[in-house]
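Hey, can you fold this one?
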Amino acid sequence: MGMHLNAYTSRENTAFYAKSGSSNVGASLEMLSDMVKNTEYDVTTLENEKQVVLQELDSVSEMPFEVTLDYLHDTAFQGTPLARNIIGTPDQVQALSVDGIRRFKDIHYKGNRTVIVGAGGVNHDEFVEMAEKHFGSLEAGSTHVFEPAAFTGSDVLVRDDSDTEAHVAIAFQTVGWNHPDVYALMVMQQLLGSWTFGDSRGKLASSRLVRKVAENNLASSVSAFNTNYSDTGLFGVYTACEPAHGTDQLQELSWAVLRECVNLFHNVTDEEVTRAKTMLKSQLANSRENTSSIADDVGRQLIYFGRHQSTAETFARIDSISSGYLRSVADKYINDRDVAVAALGRVGDLPDYNWLRRRTYMLRN
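Sure. Predicted structure:
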């Protein structure tokens, strides 16, 4: 029997998944059930897994984008659970105990907090019957209430002048997955776009931000992001560059990023919005071409929406976004709003927080 088993953790959810032939769906569910309900924990296994996690921490530390976004969450949601690193710190990993893991499992691995999803060669009625057979005994627990995420306009700079690169993320607080504005934010992400040095299309991109960065050699990478959670979100732009000491490159780059973010409220056309909606739908369609992505997407929808939302419904919601509505969303979350900033590496010439905050609005008659 061939089967691929794995698991991952996000800031709010943990997922176990199996990928197999359609004839082994029952065996896959049985295996997953055994992993969730019957895993035995002992000191030796735990110590071995700690080393695996510590190696993952080392690997993540070599990924500037991931590190910068971790710092961004740390400052944006300081004092709340969303500020915590997903993997944790080396000290936290070393402090894990068998009893602590068992307590965590007993609290969180409950039937009313579990979503079971099948995608691909699966008969729905048979899948429901098998899921009931293998997971029906998973007892219910108390209704989990997330601690509210409080956003703090702030910045964190991890300066290292020995580094040749600067990595900067600037973000605004937005909304959770089940808020109607989330689709406009997705379109706004497409409007800002992404680009990496070496892509010859940068100077010809539809994104004003990408064109400005590419034409003026302001950065080697720029990427808009839109991250949503149960009750909040972050919308912003990540950039990476190699600034020379004593230059205005980081200031010019920051100005370009904030200018184009604010322009989403002041200056976006119907043509740009139509193009961005088409790009977004194409991206979503491509992401749903394999069963793993489909299962992950359906599971997220069930957790946050309480139901599965079809591709047709998602596209209809995207199509309904007008340029006027998009500008109103940008006004609500970007125009003259506090920002959270995380910067890593050679960032000594990055403008201070007050300078950045003053660029979140335009004085117009």
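The longest helix spans residues 43-60. Let me know if you want another pass with a different chain boundary.
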